[in-house]
Amino acid sequence: MASFSIPIPRNGLSIPSxxxxxxxxxxxxxxxxxxxxxxxSNGIKGLACGILAACxxxxxxxxxxxxxxxxxxxxxxxxxxxxAFVGNTIxxxxxxxxxxxxxxxxxxxxxxxxxxxxxxxAALMSDAxxxxxxxxxxxxxxxxxxxxxxxxxxFSNAVLDRVNFGNANLQGAVxxxxxxxxxxxxxxxxxxxxxxxxxxxxxxLQKLCTNKTISDEGRAELGCRS
Length: 226
Description:
The protein is mainly alpha-helical. Helix content is 17%, strand content 4%. The strands form 2 sheets. It has a two-stranded antiparallel sheet. It has a two-stranded antiparallel ribbon with strand order 2-4. The longest helix has 25 residues, at 43-67. The chain is globular, with a radius of gyration of 17 Å. The protein starts with a strand and ends with a helix. It holds the Pfam family Pentapeptide. InterPro entries: 5peptide_repeat.
């Protein structure tokens, strides 16, 4: 059994990660344990194990890539927005896909059933609308969601690692037991967002806490120091 913590051992990879728990266990490290036999592979924390390790290696490189990302032309494929209801059939947490998933400018307002649990890895989501949607257990690894609107979206138990949420509207979004490691929230609107039991790396937490739109309650859930 390999457990992720500080310091890095000679025979394994360990990273600092935190789970935000309300109300009394702020700043408590979360150890995500991985078993080679697979006994701990079920559930969100089993999946988080590999994701947090990947983020420790690649999050800084991803930030540079995202900042200089050049997007392809908007897809002219008919019914491209409906492809979100199927999602990517391969890749998942690695952000690999069999075909680009272009959801830019699509409108999924109040979509309550067709997005739950879908794999939207590396999806292009800029300027799309997901307000009020149920996106529980969604996998959005390496998605590009700059300028998208997620007001009131339920992201419970979702995997949102290495997502670019720059300038996104996340007011009232629910990140309960959600993996956020490696994701960026530059100039995002996070008023009334819920961060209960969020799984996030320490450096990513420090960056997230600089967002002044997070409510006092949200900052307490995250464990922001000031």
